[in-house]
ABC transporter ATP-binding protein (Lacrimispora amygdalina), 290 residues
Amino acid sequence: MKAIHIKNLTKNYGDHRGIEDVSFSVEEGEIFGFIGPNGAGKSTTIRTLLSLIRPTSGSAQIFGMDCIRQAAEIAKDVGYLPGESVYYDNMTVRELVNYAADLYGVKNDDKIKELSRRLSLDLSRKMADLSLGNKKKAGILCALLHSPRLIILDEPTSGLDPLVQQEFFTILKEENKRGATIFFSSHVLSEVQKICDRVAILKEGKMVGVQKISELRANSHKKISVTAEKIPAGFFDLGGITNYHQEGNGASFMFMGNMGEILAKLSALEVHDLFIEEPALEEIFMHYYR
Ligand SMILES: Nc1ncnc2c1ncn2[C@@H]1O[C@H](COP(=O)(O)OP(=O)(O)OP(=O)(O)O)[C@@H](O)[C@H]1O
């Protein structure tokens, strides 16, 4: 069963481009990343999925249900953390989560207590007095408290400090283990690689591709830096080399190909230092954004 199935989805805001002809699917049980720079159209896609805005054309389904016609039914199965949230300032966190729990018919308080403890969120505080990160935690609580089948998170980590972020990822992995599908939008590529199985890449409103994180890495270039007694000009004249820089007795470049060729070349040098590194996911993605 597909948790999410989007087909040729287009949303224009008058003359402004939102998203154009976006298609992809998320399998039930996946942790799926949705990546793109600010303004790429991630929130537009999510809001269309949840029927908060209407598409210009195309269709979307969640668990086989039509996102427009069956929006109310879908909402019971979904937990959603918006990118930007506006809350009732006068409510305490406790009042807010009780309100959300009532909406979803959640009677048991254990999960609320456990999540607030693990995220270090004080339930007695007023929403108006919370920092951005603590407001985010309250939003996370509201998105998870009913143990939904599908969790949709729009830029969930902005404002969370690193320790809380780590705990939040552990919680998400546990939610995934109990069977929840997780759809995670972000412009921070390094955090997506920590948790997601596959990613969809969005650029200027259009899909660039969907790939497994493991494949992205397997197909990737290696980053090589060498310092040696003397490196003749244009010494590394091999195929598969890009971003070549040479200065003084150092050279650095990206390489994709048979590493033996590089080692054969290096054996002709008096090498002082050699680094062969996996590039960050950011660098792997860069060729999509050129
Ligand atoms: N209500 C709106 N009216 C007009 N244009 C909009 C509206 N909402 C979004 N857009 C435009 O649609 C495009 C996609 O925006 P969207 O917010 O979906 O991107 P995003 O990838 O979620 O980025 P961000 O992380 O900055 O929110 C942008 O060019 C944005 O300016």
Notes: The first helix runs from residue 42 to 49. Residues 13, 16-18, 36, 38-44, 83, 155 surround adenosine-5'-triphosphate (CB under 6 Å).
